[in-house]
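Write out the 3D structure for:
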Amino acid sequence: MKKTLAIVSYSVESVNSYYEQIISLFQDNIIVNKICIDDLDMKNTIEADVVLVPSFDMFEKIKNNISKEAGLIFAARTISKSGMDLIRNIEPGTEVVLIDESPEMAEQIITVLYQLGVRHIKLQSYWNIDRNNMHDKTAIILGQTAFVPKDVKNIVNIGNSLLDINSILDLGDRFDLFPLLDKQDIIRTYEEIEPSNVGLLKILGLTNSRESQLEILLQFIDAGVIGIGFDGNVFLYNENAKKIIGLEDEQVINEDGIKLFEQIPFEHVLKTMKSEEEKLVKINGYDVVATVNPIRHSGKLYGAVAIIRKYVDMEKQEHILRRQLIGHGHNAKYNFDDIIGKSNLINECKSIAKRMSKSDSSILVTGETGTGKELFSQAIHNNSKRKKYQFVAVNCGAFPENLLESELFGYEEGAFTGARKGGKPGLFELAHKGTLFLDEITEMPMNLQVKLLRALQERQIVRIGGDRLIDVDIRIIAATNKDIKKLVSKGDFRQDLFYRLNVLPLKIPPLRDRKEDILFLAEYIIKRFKSNFSFTDAAKEMLIEYDWSGNVRELRNCIEYLVNLELDTIDLKDLPFDMHDYFRNEDEGPLQDIMVEFLETAGNNIRKYIFVLDELEKGYLSNKRLGRRSISETAKKKGVFISEQEIRTILINLEKFSMAEIYKGRSGTLITEAGRLTLKHLTMSQNP
């Protein structure tokens, strides 16, 4: 809870003057009440933790209003430098009358002026002279006052008095706000006032000179230094820290360092009072090592200081990276239990992959987009002896050629324009002792294939712009969704690199080849989305027969779409499939063969088939079975020339192709889901 300060003085102007000075220093960390004595009801108690009064005689007047628990500060006052300049410009030898709110306050300011070296004029207190004879006198006033005689012609207004340094420090002590009085505030105060306490000024100046020497020393340390107080606010921030972090002093000093630098474990150190050694963090895009130590003395915690460095020492860099980068984005999340399926194909593939994981040989994973190549690769890593180390993945098709080279092999400082100061380790180095997963390996440019081949053969790499061989102990898992053997035969992929990678080949089956997994996977994904809906038989049939060119990834996207529909039951019409895609090629699969045969049977009467199917669907939607006579009557009304015999033949053919079901007697005919699907396809084909 904030504490309260009451400022009591003779005039509104002087109260406001002290108020502005105090607020500029302590901001909104205290509550300040302004009280002019003329407005004070002498029967009321001044509610405040501390009361500031300008003089003893003021205190005598209000002491009965001050509670016994309240602290009391007698203001040590001084004047502004601009006011002092006005006094220095007064003609030497001039008799000057100083006018203030009370005899005691006038004597105090006269004493201050003498301490500040005013000797060239004759100073007298307004309260000690004959005030009827002042027409030839010069008067010094402090702001506005009601005591200026009418016959005074020469008035020098030096402005309201200000609180001196020792009063400012006294306030900081009473309210436990010393951390707010940083050197910038004190310096700003020096610039505005003439401090009357010269001894204190010298002490503070000496302290600041020592702080300046310390700051100079900190600038020469080749590390960033950030210090925070026990309250978390930043009090120290050197030039090297500024270069690493990229923030200016005014964005950092006195700000909450715990929130501002959440990557640095300040909060943990303040809570435990224990050091954090060589913590790897990323600041401003740089990998940085931060060591944080508590600042304590005699068992009391005063804050914490962080020493931060970019990587410049290769051995230290490798040590920290290899120890800490696990869990910082270069880790494998999945195991073989995360590969879902009950088909023989997928279980056999998992069995082969498990055996491969025991080896250190390179693996080439092939399979269509969305089959789970990286999922298998992560499971292999987590089932291998390298599972305690990094799994570093890179998509070879996601980077331009020059950038991919620097990502893989790293670079030294100054290797090219824009190269990071201190250089940068490559992914080979980060994967040391672990696994390097090269996705879309067939997208790697030819010249990089040569460099990769050498790295795999020698188990050594050289950074761009460097000449030092760096040993790397890694396992390579490469993956592609293309026919890599065709690319090798065409000369688009190096044959020697193919053989180096294809030591252990692993082919992931597409989803359409393991149809028994489709509904099983769909139910699993629905549960993962914390949803609960079911499929109609027609929708299930479509899911099973659909091509799934995007494989498991496409199935997951499909389920996510259906989850957002918020339906309890999913029917054929709700599935996000384009019928043109479903009947994509007339030479694919048994359903396509059926469609070709059906279209041949319909021949030139295709529009009549569409009409009958359309009427049957309308009956289906109205929960009615239609007979050939009712269909014939509708045809006459609509001007469609089709006989009952033609309708009978069409219905028989539709049942032959499982597109309709004819019931005995007068029970009518019902369209099937296959018939509805065919109608939709034919309608789109006839009206593209």
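The radius of gyration is 44 Å.
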